Amino acid sequence: MTTATTAHLTRRLGTVAHGALAVLYAAFTGLASFGIPSLLTAWTTAGPELELRTAYVYWGVLAGLFIPVAALALLRRALVAPATMLLGLIVSIGCTLAIALEPENAQYAAMTGIPALLLVLFHPQRGSLLQAGAAGMDRLLTGLVAVAAVPAVLLALDHARNSAATPYTDTMHGQYAQGSIIVLALLCSGAVTALRQSGWVVAAVVTVAGTALIGVAGIVFPNDLMSVGRPWGIACVVLAACFAGASLGARRR
Question: How many CB atoms lie within 10 A of CB 198?
Fold first, then answer.
């Protein structure tokens, strides 16, 4: 077996292993961690968990939408570099922050964050991670991200403050911490979209869908513990619609 053949087989095995990790990671977060089920059943939850409906939506946005979409997008080389890898870094950094906010559940955050980091570090196109997008930054998308930045950061800080004020034994301690991370992750995803690097459409889909779901939860469940309420829920839905329209316009240009 020649050196060239050995190198080719090594690359192929690396590609297969990377793809297998992406699929397993998406399945683990989306199904085993109840990401997708949470996103689907949050709207019909009743009984003692009634006030956790919005918390389930938050978790569904992260584990049922953000992570699986980013992980599976990495399977297609035409989509991945570098925007979807940035989404992977956002997940990894977010999980690190979650450990800081909720150290007693560090093992769960590590199980979510480490695979995301590995998918980026060992991706065949990792060298293009910091390359600028050919189309350049979109002004309208950047403006929308700037408009959303202040309320998003304030909401994340409010969730973090509530988490710190809630005993570790209370279920809401972890829910508030997750909510804080998810809000910041969506804001960062919006910024990745505005950069218009290769694969930015994936980031746009995640941003629009995640923001809209949190907004709809605020409208439908205005009195839940983590709800943004009806006025801000409507604002989220409007922002998501504007971001979707701006993304479509940017794609045509």
Answer: 21
What does the alpha-carbon distance between residue 25 and residue 116 come to, in Å, rounded to a whole number?
8
Q: Give the C-alpha separation, 242 to 238, whole Å.
A: 6
Whether the Cβ atoms of residue 145 and residue 187 lie closer than 8 Å to each other: yes
DSSP single-letter state for residue 163 = H
Tens-digit pLDDT profile for residues 192-247: 899 888 788 888 999 999 999 999 999 999 999 899 999 999 999 999 999 999 99
Contact between 181 and 94 (Cβ < 8 Å):
yes
Domain range enclosing 228:
14-252
Q: Are 196 and 135 in contact (CB under 8 A)?
A: yes
User: Within a domain: residue 169?
Assistant: yes
Residue among 202, 251, 208 at smallest CA distance from 73: 202
Q: How far is CA 142 from the centre of its chain?
A: 18
Note the pTM of the prediction, 2 decimals. 0.86
Buried/exposed 49-68: b ≥16 CB within 10 Å, e otherwise: eebbbbbbbbbbbbbbbbbb
Ramachandran angles phi, psi of 45, nearest 5°: -65, 140
Residue 118: its pLDDT value, please? 82
In one-letter notation, the amino acid at residue 202 is V
Question: What's the confidence (pLDDT) of residue 52?
Answer: 84
The structural domain count of the chain equals: 1
